[in-house]
Amino acid sequence: MRNRIPVILLACGSFNPITNMHMRLFELARDHLHQTGRYQVIEGIMSPVSDSYGKKGLVSARHRVTMAKLALETSDWIRVDPWESEQDTWTETVKVLRHHYNEALRAFQSKKEFTRNKHPTESSTGNSLSCQQPVLPELKLLCGADFLQTFKTPNLWKEEDIEEIVGKFGLVCISRVGSDPSQFIQESDLLSKFQHNIFLTTVSWDGDKLLCVQNGEKEGRGWTQWIEGDEMHLEIRVCGVTCKQVFKKVQ
Amino acid sequence: MAMEDPDRKTEVVLLACGSFNPITNMHLRLFELAKDYLHETGKYKVIKGIISPVGDAYKKKGLISANHRVTMAKLATKNSDWVEVDDWESCQSEWLETLKVLRYHHQKLLSADVTNSLQHTVPITKLGRKRKQEQNSHEPVKKKNQSPVVKSVPQVKLLCGSDMLESFGVPNLWKLEDITEIVEKHGLVCISRAGNNVQKFIYESDILWRHKNNIHLVEEWITNDISSTKIRRALRRGQSIRYLVPDVVRAYIEKNRLYSPESEDRNAGVVLAPFQKHASDPKSSQALSN
């Protein structure tokens, strides 16, 4: 757990209404980030859009926020934040990110003050993050491939906003087998510049082999797994280097 | 003469047989989709849903103890007002053909129905008295609550996905005469996704085609890719199954550490019970399609 970067996941959307799929996005993103070994997801925030967004069929924010709260009642790490829904005018996604980042920064700074003022022998046990100097968390936007695609729509996004979202914050995009967000990223100069901060994982069947492609900071990262009789073969690739390991079934 | 009420709907019980290893949100959705479909035809009224987990003697690879599977299904349906779990099949020491489970539940339904009918058609006075009153009555129109109740026979229909229907074609898995009786006497409600091969499958079989009016195909427009196999795989890999199965089921699996590489290896190399049973029966290898 040491040296892992704390991450807060933020999902913006209508949540009209919230569904199991929305909540799955969080679970999948957390699993993925944890499995990279580099991140520790400390919080998930769902931010329903305000009524002033004017989308067709959007029910009152009051209801959408309440439903999301009900759905997340039993979650110990995901919560609903009504700030965006309470704004008078529609708030650009980048502004929502900035707001929540500033909130996280504020919380981080007060935590830092707290640990600094604490007597060394009174340091709390258990949470490894509070035993050491607290690490500044990163805030990442959580979305599906359809959201990423909207970057293509002319006049929908300001280029400098996209730059800030993927450059300063980062994106975790969950996509389905079959769609190809990685290609979409490659085709966009802007997005490919910030590839290192866009994390995509696609897992699919390649015949009888399980193929995982991880698009993120490192080039050509992924693995392939398959069974040959009593053996499981695992091939791991990154930056053009391939490692292979064969596991034998325990008899 | 008693008149059959044309507006009277056929009462249906939906029976889902399977491993439920574990039960998932997808299984629960099958019932909802089937009920909606049957109600929309205007001809049926779904009165109950039954989940019947298969017994351990089925010997499927990765099948964990029936006790756990039944418990999880019960937890999942705890708050349902119409879907329940029946453990009769899972308690049998030998594997039972699906048709036998259908027959059992059909018989149960009929006996319960007879009891109900007796209770509701007889008014406060005794039967004999009632008849006497009717004979003396000069009323041309009988009051509604005095006319004898005639319902069409309630039915138990097998609820399944397209994979089960298509498994009819697997040699030695089903007996042809069982398939015939299932579609002829009971009926099938099959939930599948757009673009599936189910219609073609039915077309290519004379038996299924003959009884196609009793095979109800329901389209799953809001697709749900959850399968028990994928759930077990995610669990082995330490991945979250939250929101794919009811939370109480997830908690139960976690508490009892139910699924692991070891549990997945159970029955490895063992012949599946129906194959074992039908191996020596020439009738079982009769082809379904012609």
UniProtKB/TrEMBL annotation, chain A:
Q: Residues of the signal sequence?
A: none
Its keywords, alphabetically, are: ATP-binding, NAD, Nucleotide-binding, Nucleotidyltransferase, Pyridine nucleotide biosynthesis, Transferase
What Pfam family is a match, any one?
A: CTP_transf_like
> Where does the Cytidyltransferase-like domain start and stop, copy by copy?
10-177
What are the GO cellular component annotations? mitochondrion
- Domain of life where this protein originates: Eukaryota
An example GO biological process term is: NAD+ biosynthetic process
The UniProt entry, under PANTHER family, shows: NICOTINAMIDE MONONUCLEOTIDE ADENYLYLTRANSFERASE (PTHR12039), NICOTINAMIDE_NICOTINIC ACID MONONUCLEOTIDE ADENYLYLTRANSFERASE 3 (PTHR12039:SF7)
Protein name from the UniProt record = Nicotinamide-nucleotide adenylyltransferase
Which organism's genome codes for this protein? Taeniopygia guttata
From TrEMBL, chain B:
Keyword annotations = ATP-binding, Magnesium, NAD, Nucleotide-binding, Nucleotidyltransferase, Nucleus, Phosphoprotein, Pyridine nucleotide biosynthesis, Transferase, Zinc
Q: Where in the cell is it found?
A: Nucleus
Basic and acidic residues compositional bias: what residue ranges?
133-142
User: Tell me, what is one Gene Ontology molecular-function annotation carried by this entry?
Assistant: protein ADP-ribosyltransferase-substrate adaptor activity
EC no.?
2.7.7.1, 2.7.7.18
Tree of life domain: Eukaryota
Residues in Cytidyltransferase-like domain copies: 15-233
Question: Which reaction does this chain catalyze?
Answer: beta-nicotinamide D-ribonucleotide + ATP + H(+) = diphosphate + NAD(+); nicotinate beta-D-ribonucleotide + ATP + H(+) = deamido-NAD(+) + diphosphate
What cofactor requirement does the entry state? Zn(2+); Mg(2+)
Give the protein name, as stated in the record. Answer: Nicotinamide-nucleotide adenylyltransferase
Q: Which organism is it from?
A: Taeniopygia guttata (Zebra finch)
